[in-house]
Amino acid sequence: MNLFETVKSAVTVKQAAEYYGCKVNRGDMICCPFHDDRHPSMKLNRDYFYCFGCGATGDVIDFAARLFGLSSYIFFAFLKKVLANITGMLYNLFLYAVKPRYR
Questions:
Q1: Does residue 92 have a pLDDT over 90?
Q2: Looking at residue 73, which CATH number applies to its domain?
Q3: Are strands 57-58 and 42-44 parallel, antiparallel or unpaired?
Q4: Is residue 54 part of a domain?
Q5: What does pTM read for this prediction?
Q6: Which pLDDT band holds residue 90 (cuts at 50, 70, 90)?
């Protein structure tokens, strides 16, 4: 499983929408953040979203990328770099924590 699939399986579109401040109603509908919307027109499913007003569709990566005005490819490259930096820091922290201490 690559990083893209891992992120998609770990975070749902609804979770991402709630995290970024979208108010999700009982039917998993939100006002579309990609066009001027007064009434909820975007349906959030587990694996994808679809806006009945503007036709926007995609998965959780597409949703987050469009919120920031990026293409999915650029957003995912950024996410990959951030996760690599965090992983490197955690690895170094782990090495320091388990380093044998001599008296």
A1: no
A2: 3.90.580.10
A3: unpaired
A4: yes
A5: 0.71
A6: low
Range of the domain at 9: 3-97
Is 102 contained in some domain? no
Question: Does some domain include residue 80?
Answer: yes
Split into its structural domains, the chain has a count of 1
103 lies in some domain: no
Q: Which 3-state string (H, E, C) describes the chain?
A: CCHHHHHHHHCCHHHHHHHCCCCCCCCCEECCCCCCCCCCCEEECCCCEEECCCCCEECHHHHHHHHCCCCHHHHHHHHHHHHHHHHHHHHHHHHHHCCCCCC
What digits encode the pLDDT tens for the residues 23-62? 999 999 999 999 998 999 999 998 999 999 999 999 988 8
> Any long-range contacts for 5-11 (C-beta under 8 Å, 24+ apart)?
7/60, 7/61, 7/79, 8/47, 8/59, 8/60, 8/61, 11/60
